[in-house]
Amino acid sequence: MGLRGMACAAFAVGLAGSQALAVSVEFFFTDPTDAANTPLTHLQIGGVGTEFTLSVWFKTTGSWNHLGANLFIGFDRTSTHGLGASPSDGLLGLAGTPTTSHANVNSLYGLFPPNTGVLGGGTDPVSGPGERPYGIEYLLLLNSGVDTPTPDGTPVRLLDVKLKNLGLLPGETYNVVLYDAGRDIEGTTFLFNLNTDALRGGTSTLQVEAVPEPATLAALGIGLGFLARRRRKGG
Q1: What tens digit of pLDDT does each residue of 157-187 get?
Q2: Could you please report the per-residue DSSP string of 88-141?
Q3: Fold of the 6-234 domain
Q4: Which pairing describes strands 118-121 and 42-45: parallel, antiparallel, or unpaired?
Q5: Are the C-beta atoms of residues 172 and 203 closer than 8 Å to each other?
Q6: d(Cα 8, Cα 27) in Å, to the nearest integer?
Q7: Per-residue pLDDT for 207 more than 60?
Q8: Residues 147 and 111: beta-carbon distance below 8 Å
Q9: What angle do CA 116, 122, 124 make, to 5 degrees?
């Protein structure tokens, strides 16, 4: 039944268009400690074992009435889709379980089913086998249960997700994506409303780079200094 299963099947009907062709939506990541909420394209993290949190936002050009959002956050790759998919790289992962990784959902929204996210592989933009993102899918609904306008150009915070560096070494990079397959609703990202219209925003990519911890840099500096002194004495 796809990544969300029977609980979300009602939202699978007729997600085909948007209310107005002139309206567009952009989904993006931010650093939750950044008061300016600047969209991220690159983020430095610590070494293996380091946890980091990303905030997920959207912003529309033009006003669009929405009931909720479907999000697919890809932090690995896979060659299959759905619940049976397995991550292929294992460099990044969720910090904790899917039921605790999103405690900071905007108070206007609730996750459906409550407090759950579904791990699996997203669909491919074309039919057939191929590599696609692996990650977690969330379905968010406005607690009001009614369509709410999004003011033109006003960013809206949807949720925070906590990830962990499982194997990314200093100097290495990996992409985290807000994934939009652009062809159906399974494992993709869009806004939707009571009319089951879908407003898609395309794929947003964040490059994560592992950097040495300050303690490691300090130790390296001490070691280099010691070698330099030995060379001077030896000379």
Answers
A1: 999 999 999 999 999 999 999 999 887 677 8
A2: SS-SEEESS-TTTTTTT--TTEEESSTT--EEEEPPPSSSSS--EEEEEEEEEE
A3: Immunoglobulin-like (2.60.40)
A4: unpaired
A5: no
A6: 21
A7: yes
A8: no
A9: 165
Query: What's the CA dihedral at 68, 105, 161, 12 to 10 degrees?
Result: -20
Q: Closest Cα partner for 81 from 30, 133, 128, 123?
A: 123
Please write the tens of the pLDDT for every residue from 105-159: 888 888 887 777 888 888 765 556 688 899 999 999 999 999 999 889 999 999 9
Domain segments of the chain: what residues?
6-234
Phi, psi of 65 (to 5 degrees): -75, 125
* Two tokens, residue 18: 């948007």
Q: How far apart are CA 1 and CA 163, in angstroms?
A: 27
Whether omega before 113 lies within 30 degrees of 0, making that bond cis, reads yes
Amino acid identity for residue 75 in this structure: F
Structure tokens at 195: 């009319």
Amino acid at the residue 97: T
> Can you read off the two tokens belonging to residue 25?
């939506």
